[in-house]
Amino acid sequence: MAQAVSGRPTRFASIPRDIREATALSAAATYPSSFGVAMYGPSADESQYDLFGEPSGHLHTILDEAVNKVLDIVDLSEGIGSSNDLLTEQLAPLGQRAVKHIGSLTAGLTDAGVGVRVAWQAREGTVRRSDWSPSGVQRVRLLCEESEFTEAERITVTGWLGAASSFLGKVEIRTDGGEVIRASTDEELTGRLDEYFNKRVEASVEVEKVVFAGGRERKVYSVLSIRKLT
Q: String of b and e for 158-178 (b: at least 16 CB within 10 Å)?
């Protein structure tokens, strides 16, 4: 999940070591009858992977962002009036790998017939609480299991790069045709995004289509390479 929210999602290959170390969870204690567990992430000294490049302890770390993304999905799955469109908007950009793991988590919970109550304290001290009912879990499971990711297609786009975040590995390109493409970037390109901000560019983009239950379609864009145009 952390790899998906911090840059370009991948289908396979190992997760970078810095992300794995920054998101490692350890069990501190279990509740009576073992129906609950207290967990914690790396200390400030152990984890240098801060999402915003600032000293750890002041802003959300990549672990906080990953947990918050999961809890966003949890919260959206609850409530009679909640739309599956909002859930698919959260799930699609995470990519096939993360969606598969969310599906495995929800399958285990559904098979056991249980929900989950979570309280997460971020490094700066704020606490977020979410309750995941068995019906909400089942809802996410069906979306994950019935999603279909197509083979990625490569296209070339030209336009203005009007927004870029080297913290999150995200860009927005307004193409010459007027379409706004929101895409992720891999680690190597992310560190150089400031070179292309507010400039006309040509980008090689990987496009992956996701079809969810009910025929809902979403496209996921990833920038593979980019160059400035004169």
A: ebbbeebebebbbbebbeeee
Q: How many CA atoms lie within 13 A of 105 on its CB side?
A: 18
| C-alpha span between 102 and 111 (Å, rounded) | 14
150 within 8 A of 92, measured Cβ to Cβ: no
pTM, two decimals, is 0.75
Question: Which DSSP category does 53 fall into?
Answer: S
Give the span between the Cα atoms of 164 and 196, in whole angstroms.
Answer: 8
Rounded to whole angstroms, the Cα distance separating 94 from 122 reads 21
14 DSSP 8-state letter: P
Interval 4-43: pLDDT, tens: 887 666 666 778 888 888 889 998 888 877 688 889 888 7
**Residues β-bridged to residue 52:** none
